[in-house]
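Amino Acid Chain and Its Fold in Token Form
===========================================
Purpose: to set a sequence beside its fold so the mapping can be learned.
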Amino acid sequence: MFKRTVVICDTSNHVIRTIDEYGATKTLAGMSGVQGDSDGQGSNARFNLPHAVCMDSKGNALVTDHGQLVRHITPDGVVTTLWDATKQPAGTDPLLKSCSLRGITCTHDTVYMTCTATHSVISLSLITKQARIVAGGIGAGFVDGKCSEAKFHSPHGIDCDDDAHLYVSDTSNHCIRKITIGQSVSTFAGDPHQTGLRDGVSTKAQFSKPYGLCLDRLPPAGGAADGESTPFALFVCDGPNKAVRRICGGEVRTISHLDFEPYDIVVRTHFLSIQLLFVLH
């Protein structure tokens, strides 16, 4: 398990790195500057523009690689290919074969990923290794409603809460969407018809091409009561606005202005302080 360590994709160098609590960085897997898709341990493994990473329930890292692969990495750097879009059997949904995977998150035994080419959100079972489209996939656009009828436009970041709701940065629609799996898609924050930098209540706020996002659980004083969900804050990289936005309790606030466009974000909470790590691709 990656204890007190953040795992990141160093996309242009084609490697996976770790950063410990003291800021020390090391290469976990891959060889800097060398592209490929071979499995192996440490520097014997190869990646090709790895994009996003998340942790599974067993403490291993899962990475979207080259837009069509899902790679599995153990804490000691052993890399295996979990899923390959180009090697799916006959009868597989053609949209799954032409995907361009971006964001990734994992809950229990299922992985969820965004796909910019097909404007969809995909699930992958860690048990059966079967993938399917859970929302979108019917062309670019903006439509809330049933998962099968919803539309996205170049979705990127994705994360999930304790109730397995998914939160997606719908980049070219300039908003954050919420997916209740098997039911519906709704707008969680932002205005798909208006781009800008405005704080405020939920859909009254404005974003400009939000990319990475990360959910941070906020245990209430004394702990959550039985049957209650843990409250959370959602941190969003608001790219062209060069800002980090925080969504909590239905309110959107700008918490940091930067001199660069943040592309992905990792949040680690230590007691009462929040540490933010920005990864710029």
In short: Residues 29 and 42 are 4 Å apart (CA to CA).
